[in-house]
């Protein structure tokens, strides 16, 4: 595939949603204009079963590199995922087993393929870092650690905070940046891309690349999609859109964002032009109803993953539920042959993934049968042939129907 060196596309690549470029934007721009293929990677630790909008922001930027003809590697951190990245963590992560990590990662490629090419011309390559990290001896680890100082690693904000609060810092967390940094050396890449919360880890790899390979590695850090408190929107916070979410859920979650998320949401999560985004910012300042722009954003996000028709249907359904206070006209139907415990029913109807989730929702008053909020785990549902509506949260509905007998 020929390398594209169009100035306008390179400018967009290096500015849209980009927080910083190391060693400099000018350095990477010059490399991109050379017309030679560059290899860059994104590393993802499988600490949860689904990729989310934070990953999508970086994957979309990866796709821009791919469309210019450059080589991509999607690195699954199946080894580092067992250790746990301490970034932004006030306490040590619960360590995962290899089985848990591989189970979490099993759908990553299918989800990532919504945004980057994993098949066909210039397809991204998928690698696992246990290939090299899992083979290292203790001698190798000592040699790797010798390229860092304690002072360097203690520069991390979260380590400083933990020490001030008297919280422990475990040695395996301390070594995490050295292991993640070694990934780029093992793959001998030109660069790495990630969220700006990964800057420390990515720059650790840049230092190692200089020491061990004598090469300059570029690093592109992307802006984070954050909530009003400044926390990144991700699986740890429980407020992020997952790439496996339905169009209804994607639209509904966008509608729950604050007005301050509208412009960043258009910039980081859609393909709207910079000019269109500037116009949206102006409209907000001039007093347009933010809800209308948020609905536009919700449709754009849902359309990327589910198509225009599903996105519009999600918008219409949301209006029906929240403006007109009606139940949706169409909803799944689940048939039972008699009275059933509410917890068992929630699991059987696939409204929840486990009894633990069902109990948590009941405790939070998040389950309704008809117009009544479910109060206890012991309640039962005994529908008529016409059915009764089971509601989870604000947007999930199932009609529970009694089986027809002859």
Automatic annotation (TrEMBL):
Record GO biological process: tyrosyl-tRNA aminoacylation
The protein's Enzyme Commission number: 6.1.1.1
Pfam families hit by this protein: SYY_C-terminal, tRNA-synt_1b
Domain Tyrosine--tRNA ligase SYY-like C-terminal: 329-398
Keywords: Aminoacyl-tRNA synthetase, ATP-binding, Ligase, Nucleotide-binding, Protein biosynthesis, RNA-binding
An annotated Gene Ontology molecular function: tyrosine-tRNA ligase activity
Catalytic activity: tRNA(Tyr) + L-tyrosine + ATP = L-tyrosyl-tRNA(Tyr) + AMP + diphosphate + H(+)
GO cellular component terms attached to this protein's record: cytosol
InterPro entries per UniProt: aa-tRNA-synth_I_CS, aa-tRNA-synth_Ic, Rossmann-like_a/b/a_fold, S4_RNA-bd_sf, SYY-like_C, Tyr-tRNA-ligase, Tyr-tRNA-ligase_bac-type
UniProt keyword NADP present: no
Protein family (similarity comment): Belongs to the class-I aminoacyl-tRNA synthetase family.
Protein name, UniProt field: Tyrosine--tRNA ligase
